[in-house]
Amino acid sequence: QKEVEQDPGPLSVPEGAIVSLNCTYSNSAFQYFMWYRQYSRKGPELLMYTYSSGNKEDGRFTAQVDKSSKYISLFIRDSQPSDSATYLCAMRDYKLSFGAGTTVTVRA
Amino acid sequence: GAGVSQTPSNKVTEKGKYVELRCDPISGHTALYWYRQSLGQGPEFLIYFQGTGAADDSGLPNDRFFAVRPEGSVSTLKIQRTERGDSAVYLCASSYGATDTQYFGPGTRLTVL
After folding, report:
1. Is B81 helix (H, G, I), strand (E, B) or coil?
2. Most exposed among A37, A92, B42, B58, judged by the fewest C-beta atoms under 10 Å?
3. Which of A42, A46, A95, A102 to substitute to test the interface with B, most B CBs within 10 Å?
4. Torsion angle, alpha carbons of B4, B41, A60, A80, to 10
5. What would the DSSP string read from start to end of A35-86?
6. What are the phi and psi torsion angles at B36 (to 5°)?
7. Three-state SS at B111
8. What's the mean pLDDT in B40-58?
């Protein structure tokens, strides 16, 4: 079993829809939780960063962490075609452990 | 300022050959990481440098893989006797310290024929 599980999708939604992404993990020592966005043939770029449990909002993006369930989520509101990318959850002690990534397509 | 840069962007080699992949981190970042990303997968940790020393090389798959960072800045990942299974995108990331945000380079796409 992988340390971080993420449904690879793909996920296709119409423009303006809410995109819901999630990951589960097994290592209870993880304290830092991140979402990275990766465009084709590019390196991952940090989108959201959360320490421990709770919610964090940044514009159209909301990240949630539930450590008791070992479950993290990312919500994208009012999705745009420019949001089409692969979204990777990641968590760490110091090195990052990534999920497989979910490929999202937002249709205009 | 400049981000993390990696060269070459693409490398095609033949099975059994030796390759070197270079990473130039963000200036002032003391921590440097190498990850490997296979098609359809998330990046997997290979090795972590704090300064010049490899603080954790537990992700290196076998002794054909080796990395150095002699002056605490640029790092080189070296792969001997390449195998087709080594084909992947090799990503480098750097951060100020071990608990700070990691910034990724664009990666080197390695293809072993």
Report:
1. coil
2. B58
3. A95
4. 100
5. EEEE-TTS--EEEEEEESSEEEEETTEEEEEETTTTEEEEEESS--GGG-EE
6. -125, 130
7. strand
8. 94
Q: What distances in angstroms separate CA A21 from CA A69, B7, B25, B29, one per listed residue?
A: 16, 33, 30, 31
pLDDT on residue A94: 73
Q: Distance, in angstroms, between A35 CA and closest chain B CA? A: 12
For the stretch B61-91, pLDDT in tens is 999 999 999 998 999 999 999 999 999 999 9
Residues of chain B found within 8 Å of residue A42, distances taken between Cβ atoms: 106-107
Rounded CA gap, B6 and A21, in Å?
30
The Cα–Cα gap between A38 and B63 comes to: 30
Per the prediction, chain A carries an average pLDDT of: 94
Q: Does A47 touch chain B (CB under 8 A)?
A: no
Please check whether residue B92 is in contact with residue B4, taking contact to mean a CB–CB distance below 8 angstroms: yes
